[in-house]
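Reading a protein record of the kind used here takes little practice once its layout is understood. The fold follows as a row of integers, each naming the local backbone shape at the matching residue. With these conventions in mind, the following record can be read line by line:

_____
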Amino acid sequence: MIAAKLADWRQHFSGPVWTQAFEFLEQLPKDSADNDGLVSIDGDTLLYRVMSYPTRGPEGTTVEAHEKYIDIQMSLEGAEAIDWFSRDGLTLNKAYDAENDYLLFDRPDHVTGTVFNRPGYFSVFYPDDGHTAQQLVGDTPTPVRKVVIKVLLDAVSA
């Protein structure tokens, strides 16, 4: 997991796929419309989705992870907490869904770390990173608009 300022992405990533992904983020209008599903930026190598929701508490949440894609997540409006968990030792809750590239784990009693996504900051979750997004920053639910870019793991590890 990596969390940083959008302006500093070059300190953490290099290569054409990362460049394309982060330049897309830099140019994405804050008021981009939500999309119902993933939209291609570059075939199946880079996909994105804009979504809106209110933040919530961690109660009853499950931990999500992926196999084929790396997530880049960034708030366009509002702030959310994202809890991070190493997949080692997590208890599987839902088997891998290959069509949607996710599997779910029971939320453990401990949190490995928490990042706070705000506009201008991003977080990156690799396949060995479990994560639970959409969480409160503070005590009151607030609306969040965010973008998630899916980066094909094979495209950056080749």
User: Anything to note?
Assistant: The CA atoms of residues 14 and 156 lie 9 Å apart. The chain has one domain: 2-157. The two ends are 20 Å apart (CA to CA).
